[in-house]
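Side project, low priority. Logging it here so it doesn't get lost.
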Amino acid sequence: MPGALDHLWVVDLSDTLAGQYCARLFADFGATVVLVEPPAGSPVRRLAPFSEQGDSLQFFHLNTGKRSVVIDRATGEGSSRFEALLATADVVVLPPNGDAAAVERLNPACVVVVPSNFGSDGPRADWQGPELVLQALSGMMHNNGAAGREPLYGTGNRAALASGVGAYVGALTALYARKTTNRGQVVRVDAAETAAAMCFPYVMQYIYNGTVRQRTEQAIQAGQVLCRDGWVCIWIYNFRWHALVNALGLPELEHDPRFADPGDRRVNWDALFAILQTRVADMMAEDLVEILQRAQVIAAKAYRPSELIGSRHLAARNYWEEINGRTALGPPFRLSAVPRTLSRGAPEPGEAGDLAAPPARRSPPARPAADMPLSDIRIIELTTAWAGPMSGRVLAYFGAECIHVEAPNRVNSWRLNKDRPNPVNFPDGQPGARWYDRSFLFNSQNVNKLSCILNLKTEEGRATLRRLVAVADVVVCNFRPGTLKKLGLDYESLTAIKPDIIVAELPAFGADGPMSGYAALGPTMEMAAGMSAMIGYPGGQPEVTGPSYLDPIGGFNAAAAILTALIYRQRTGQGQYVEVPQVEAAMQLIGAEILKAGETGIDPAPSGNRVPHAVPHDAFPTRGHDQWVAIAALDEAQWRNLCKVMNRPDLIEDPRFASVDRRLDNQDALTIIVSDWTRSQDKHEIADALQAAGVPAAPVQTPKDLAEDPYLAHRGFFTELEHPDAGRHPHPGLPIDLSATPGAQVRAAPPFGGHNRHVLEGILGLSVDEIATIEAGPAMATRPLEGA
């Protein structure tokens, strides 16, 4: 079956997780992807975890669907074939030190993708960036784990693979622009900048009012209970309190003076969850989740990775794929017109020895670059909170006109309209008269967008939206599955208006299957994706990453899916339905770990920041309140260099620490020694000294640190924008840099209904009388309705 990208040739020269994941996404949707390996094979072949047969599951996961050729660039053997591959490629993915300019000279139409950890210039260009370092620098690790204990970095290589998604987004954007310019360009994505972009709402909080979110704020609305077969996370919105207690058969709690008021409930949170724990201890976790979800209370089981292989929900969705007799993860997103097209597993070295490349590409004369690569695209965004708006924000960054549609009685939850105004959410701690336009949360995610208020429960509101669809390219929705259909705005109905429309939905668990109707948030998706069960302190409960790690990941994946559909439509004129099941997309970031647990039936036990292949690998206390430095000695040379920087050469000869295995046996003693050294020092100075000595290390940065970070400043991560109600502030950006058609932040988030008239008059061209009728009716407003 043809794929969305089956007209593309991709040459993967990368030796990084990010680069190989970027290239694998092309293979997923039909591109011919050739992995170029040295005679010793890609270094990713030597990365854990390993299968029962001894090969790397990381390599298998990242290279399924590709072909392999072996070229010895050191000796020049195969150089003519190598140049032929480059001359015919639509996309070349390079290692961090790759020569992008040389590829451009050889093939001016080629999109050259260069993923790296820190870029090739500026602060930290020479730093080492394993996952622990990337997460420490991102601002997210600061939020993870229990107050007073070492913060937790998470699991797997999620920052690196998320930057692979960013690289794919950048490459597709450049390919879309190529239709106009006839030229390729260079796409650069840093993993460190990508990791910071996952945390930027809380950088905005600091920028707005100087407050720094603390780990003690983590569980204001969520808690966990242990059922017979696993943990369940329950999210208790204030407006779902009645539903929760009745669903659990505890109606007497509703008016209990300890819990009736939200403020008192938070004070007595531990007492509440002790009661809930007693009530559910003998229940099966999935049964509890089903009961709560039927009552519209958000909850999720913390699935262990091995449980995902046998999930009845994933089985019902035909998620798992068998390729060459091996299990592979299903697609990160689904396209109705062009499904995923994988037909082969990860390649053997050089197995594509007879691969014939297409004729060398003849580049037509270059045309001037468009102002922005997606400036001809109009998006209608029916979204709320983080993931959906993040997807629109990525596309708007590259020039798409994104119209954020809300109802006057059901506004974006990140405007905080359901909560009493809390000073920490607003500039200078002042809610102001239009506090719903001053929330750092909403304003962080809706840069570059227009705001149009339409009540879609009124016929006039739906009719106005249908008129918008007729002149739009994409509709994005992250409400519960079925919401669009109830409104008469499902894909089939919208294609009757605009046959080539692309409709993208972001259901947490997919559009079908036993769990398809379940609501979710970032933390509960992290539970369901198998991540949280691997994160935590030894013997403790599962932990989640920061405030809501999987929401921005979902936004990145949705942008990638929409761009894949846009590239297909640009070539064929055909739109389609795009499904982004956020949990399944997130599972890709721990794909190798899931496959390992599926093979062995053994799940990694939570062990804080410790890993079986490196010691030390942890966060250590430094000078100041809740200040930490992350340190990872990944090999013997780094261990010896750490001892030298500590001025403790005696540790090198200490028999307790003579090898990785011995250090693993004596980690507790080593942690005390390293902590005694770090405790009185500045976290930034320690990290600088260790990185200069070749030891991976990083300060565990707070949002304040990110706002003042010299690396992000050098990258131009922040843009000063003026908001009519919130004032002028630096706004965090996105980590995807295109050399010829770059994205930009040009306009702060829109005031509520601030573009109603522009949409009606400037976009739809309605008459004065039509506009007056709509504005005077219940379909449109410029302020949220009371209680919305």
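Brief comment: The chain has four domains: 9-208+342-366, 216-309, 378-587+748-776, 617-707.
Revisit when time allows.
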